[in-house]
Amino acid sequence: MNTPDPAVARAAERLDTARRTGVPCDPVRDLLPPGDLAAAYAVQTLLADRSRAEGHRVTGWKIGLTSAAVQAQLGVDTPDFGRLTDDMAVPDGAEIPWDAVLQARAEAEVALVLEHDLTHDRHTVADVIRATAFALPAVEVVGSRIRDWDISAVDTIADNASAGAYVLGTRPVPLGALDLRTAGMVLERHGEPVSTGAGAACLGHPLHAAVWLADTLVRLGHPLRAGDTVLTGALGPMTTVEPGDVLEARIDGLGSVRARFGRTGPEGDTR
Description:
Blueprint: H1 6-21, H2 37-53, E1 58-64, H3 68-74, E2 80-85, E3 89-90, E4 95-96, E5 105-114, H4 125-131, E6 132-142, H5 153-158, E7 163-168, E8 184-189, E9 192-198, H6 206-219, E10 229-234, E11 239-240, E12 246-251, E13 255-261
Parallel strand pairs: 1-10, 3-7, 4-13
Antiparallel strand pairs: 1-2, 5-6, 5-10, 5-11, 6-7, 8-9, 8-12, 12-13
Helix pairs in contact: 1-2, 4-6
């Protein structure tokens, strides 16, 4: 393994310490060249290498920054991506320990599960449709190891695109049965709506986001593979999460999925 750039190594260590201690850290943008997204992805890759060394495997990818408003807020004009790992996957309705994700928030998304690799230099929507086995409703639990969500694009990319955990529904639906662009979404907390949206909120269509990811990962030498789960991006505004919350996302044509959060951490921590 190549020796990482010292600045990249320092940023990775800061984020990893936050993960291990459960104490959010200062932003890492002060450690990296201003606006250097390549350096941020290098931090993400170094942290992924550490995760793999701990015995975890990559189960797929998440797409972030699919909202034009969020891109403008962070000063970028493109989405970002992060890795999903086996320890992030939570069964539908199972309890997510409150200390599992730092500063947790949640959003509803369309998940694609691939049946075939996507290895072309440039992909079309048809390529993605042919490669997809089925779609599922998903709740992504995002989190930030950076204190108070004080993030730039560099910070969130380095922090694995703020990935925390993900919950998938259990009724697979073929893409031919769906109109994902117009599919409405409602995310409820204890039965009360807290976020609404539709597929068009995700880069105009969740499949557009998947095409972007497929092309990007081929350029980086990590093409999407059969069996990968792809979280295509938020269908509506992110919502905060409190201890004991039960969130249920319903997406037209896909059904529903629940994320349930524990009330406290091991020492009664309710941060």
